[in-house]
Sequence to fold (345 residues):
Amino acid sequence: MRSGPAMLRRFFRRVLGLAGFTIQYGCIVHCTFEYLGEIVMCSGPSMEPTIRTYDVIICEKLSRQFYRIDKGDIIIAKNPNDPKMSICKRLIGLEGDKVCTSGLHDLFRSHIYVPKGHVWLEGDNLHNSTDSRNYGPVPYALIRGRACFKIWPLHEFGVLRESPND
Amino acid sequence: MVRASGFGKRYLKAFLSGFFVAVPVTVTILDRVAYIAKVEGASMQPSLNPSGRKSSDVVLLNRWSVRNYEVHRGDIVSLVSPKNPEQKIIKRVIALEGDIIRTMGYKNRYLKVPNGHFWIEGDHHGHSFDSNAFGPVSLGLVHARASHIIWPPSRWMKLQSELPNKRKPVLGGEEDNCE
Fold:
């Protein structure tokens, strides 16, 4: 009869320990994904030929925190028209830069200066990309991270390529 | 010597394991659940900081309630300033996507809030740098919803979601059914 409560106590202690362990590692995972980097699978044609659908890339968060994102970097950002979706584009202009806003087939080229606190994003596949040419400059705070490394497919493993459009 | 180093090692181990629990758990709670912040400036008078420079309110910012970017008209939210990513601003939500509103000093007199955007204004019109200056703001910039004033204690209260009567949307104020 004595062993009943002792067993129960041991059981509860084990459950509590397991819960604590789960919370601790959940929190560590959250911090890693939020502040260091995360693994992202891409879909859509807008970044071809640099990134194709089903490519897996590593996206690091440090340069966003320290405002080290530069022109030419590929970034992952929240879609300004739908915050639950993410977009992957190349950063073409930082605040104060002069960028060309017209599409490929427009007769007249128009330019604007990127406003303060915003960036200009364009896909590498200029013919099939919804980007800043459609929705205008994007606030810097929507940037989630910088795509720096491709890990899948294996034969393209390595640092992401420079823009094909320069 | 041996005992001392053994003690030091044990102490270090306990410190490290405590550190690896406390820091991630705290950061996650601040990121996911709620945190507190001091309100600066006069843009939300009289709801926040009513006595001006003399005292600042401290508010509880609920991050959990905006995890799916769900905000309602009248809520007080904090968001990253679209003009300066290092700064957070606190404003009242006036209109959501699809609403048509009358602006107060923006370049268009009437405006339909685009998809994925919302319209924010400070309660203290004329002393607030808000959507009337920079236009509709992307929902992705929303950071938290201010739910309570927690300091000073005399001002402790729940912040109500209320829309000033004359700032109701011209169209789209009610959820319309179009099927």
User: Anything to note?
Assistant: DSSP finds three helices and ten strands in chain A.
